[in-house]
Amino acid sequence: MRETPLIRQPADLARWIDHTILAPDATEAQVEPLCEEAIAHRFRSVCVNPIHVRFVASRLKDTAVKACSVVSFPFGAAPSRAKAAEAAAAVEDGAAEVDMVMAVGLLKAGRFEAVRADIAAVKRACGSALLKVILETCLLSGEEKVTACRLAQDAGADFVKTSTGFGSGGATVSDIALMRRTVGPDMGVKASGGIRTFEVAKAMIEAGATRIGASASLAIIGARP
Fold first, then answer.
1. In the predicted model, is pLDDT for residue 15 greater than 60?
2. List 18, 161, 175, 202, catalytic entry
């Protein structure tokens, strides 16, 4: 069920945020302070590339903050069996949430059952871990966004998500509103890509987002300029 937004000040946003570092050259020395920040500010999760999941899970042990990993990032073009294996490895390493990239090329080719099966395979591999499906909305028409949301929902995903942050565009209020209308009130919607201020993050939540993915998390909650 969608949470009712109660956001009066920037710090109220912390529980909505996946504190994120997905740069390909990110090191453990850069990831570690994100874990400490997430614990201190009570972010929802720390989202990292798969090689860092075990490290992050160990740092977050016995806290309310979850470890989150990405799968087939940032293109989503791996075979389903590879995506499923990557998801299973992330969960084994301690990820409680997995953000997979949808097979955009298959969607645009009209191979809808293949897209649904791809997502379903990853969902099975996730077990009890939450699955978010990254649509990469900047590459899709309005109709394709609706179709992608419905396929993710049919495949059992827990969230639909706008963007990798590596495409030509990120989250928009209009896309979040469209995604929320499509999936209804009970599925998660994650806004990610280009969200750097409290005002923008708040607008995303008011439009229907239930999670924010951001590397500028501290700035969003007013913890630094």
1. yes
2. 161
